[in-house]
Amino acid sequence: MDGFEENTGVIVMAATNRPDVLDPALLRPGRFDRRIVVSMPDVKGREAILKVHTRKMPVGSKVRLEKVARSTPGFSGADLESLANEAALRAARRGAKKVEQEDFDYAVDRIILGLERKSIIISPDQKKCTAYHESGHAVVGIFVPEADPIHKITIVPRGMAMGVTSFLPSDDRYNYTEKKLLSMLATLMGGRASESLFLETLSTGAGNDLEKATELARKMVCEWGMSEALGPVAHAQSGDMIFLGREFNKTRDYSEHTARVIDSEVKRIIEEAYSISLELLNDNRDIVEKIAEQLLEKETISSSEINDIFGELRPDMGPIPSLPPISEIRETVDPSNDNPEQEEEVRENDGSEENRTGSETDTGGSGGES
User: Fold this and answer.
1) Do 300 and 183 share a structural domain?
2) 124, 142, 114, 179: which is closest to 365 by C-alpha?
3) Span 119-126, mean pLDDT?
4) At residue 161, what are phi and psi to the nearest 5 degrees?
5) pLDDT band, very low/low/confident/very high, at 340 (cuts 50, 70, 90)
6) Which residues contact 33 (CB under 8 A, 6 or more apart)?
7) 357 or 280: whose pLDDT is higher?
8) How confident is the model at residue 123 (pLDDT cuts 50, 70, 90)?
């Protein structure tokens, strides 16, 4: 680091999670002027990290780490370490000698969706409301454009949510189109639309959905210029954290009139998404009711069971969106494999039941999304 001593053979490295609050004097040329951004690992990186954390574990021969890597977009190295440890703990509780694929699937669900709270006593009316709420999320999420593959629906309380609908993106996403964002908004509003359409009531279960939908719609308007009324202009507020003399209050650089237009546009986008949800659910009432019926009976249904419902009620539609088979996944993952027998098994097993979301995982108050 230049400016401190004459020894030019010393290289000083530092790391921070808050580069925005660093003193500019540290960042001038000759000091910390080489910046390396360490982002979340991609699918290849996640598989490599999983191999590191499982190398001392007795892992079963049928375990496919590439499948686990594909189902964990957005996971950090620490998340993957926790996943591996959770899978090992599950195998130990079962009394198994090796960690199997089902243990990794359980660990993914526990980290993404939260710990099951089966001890909670839920009345039949609340259970029915949650079932229709989650069915609404699922059906809208399947029919909207650029839909992510659905992974699982459950009305067993997990974490702070009374029910969860989980979607798993088929690949890592770094950019979102306006159509994709509107589809995400419609999926978020699907739970509330289902309650209104099938139960003729509204519940607090949509609270988390509304919060996330409002935040997403406001970003579309204020940060990404996706509003015709405002045009390609950024209207984001300054939201620096209270640190090193930064501002204590948020400030904005637009007028009261613009603020009213922003509020109007946010409301318009959310209402448009809500209308899409209502239309899709009304056109597919039989599917919503069938999924809700299955949830009330089994509490948790997987993507394969949802596919069976669509095969029965919509035979001309074909299979719902799902992750590509493992043979295709391996084209985007490091193809090296020390065990040729495992390589052959990979080609034969598409593993469609064990795939993840998302963007995304959807959770909420009594059946919302996250």
Assistant:
1) yes
2) 114
3) 84
4) -95, 145
5) very low
6) 27
7) 280
8) confident
pLDDT of residue 132: 94
Q: How far, CA to CA in Å, does 115 sit from each of 157, 203, 287, 294, 359?
A: 8, 23, 28, 22, 20
Please enumerate, as own/partner, the contacts of 229-234 that have beta carbons within 8 Å and a separation of 24 or more.
229/261, 229/264, 229/265, 230/258, 230/261, 230/262, 230/265
306 and 187 together in one domain: yes
Distances (CA, A) of 319 to 180, 305, 312, 327: 21, 11, 11, 19
Residues 6+ apart with CB under 8 A from 319: 307, 310, 311
Is residue 134 annotated as part of the catalytic site, yes or no?
Answer: yes
Residue where one domain finishes, among candidates 62, 79, 113: 113
Check 134, 195, 265, 360 and give the catalytic one.
Answer: 134
In a domain, 270, yes or no: yes
**CB neighbours of 148 closer than 8 A, spacing ≥ 6?**
141, 167, 168, 169, 170, 321, 357, 358, 359, 360
The CATH number that applies at residue 135 is: 1.20.58.760
Share of the chain above pLDDT 90, in %: 37
Q: How confident is the model at residue 48 (pLDDT cuts 50, 70, 90)?
A: very high
Q: For residue 19, what is the DSSP state?
A: G
Q: How many domains does the chain have?
A: 2
Specify whether 64 is located in the same domain as 153: no
If asked whether residues 285 and 157 sit together in one domain, one would say yes
Which one has a higher pLDDT value, 213 or 167? 213
Q: Does residue 323 come out as left (phi exceeding 0), alpha (psi in the -120 to 50 range) or beta?
A: beta
Is 142 domain-assigned?
A: yes
- For residue 347, what pLDDT is reported? 33
Q: 10 Å Cβ neighbour count for 251?
A: 9
Does residue 345 lie in a domain region? no
Give CA–CA dist 98/258, Å, rounded: 61
Nearest Cα to 353, choosing from 108, 166, 148, 152?
152
Q: Which domain holds residue 234?
A: 124-321+355-363
H/E run at residue 151: strand 150-154
What is the per-residue pLDDT across 55-113, written as a single tens digit (0 to 9) for each? 999 998 889 898 888 888 889 999 999 999 999 999 999 999 999 998 998 898 888 87
Number of helices (H), then strands (E), belonging to the chain: the values are 12, 4
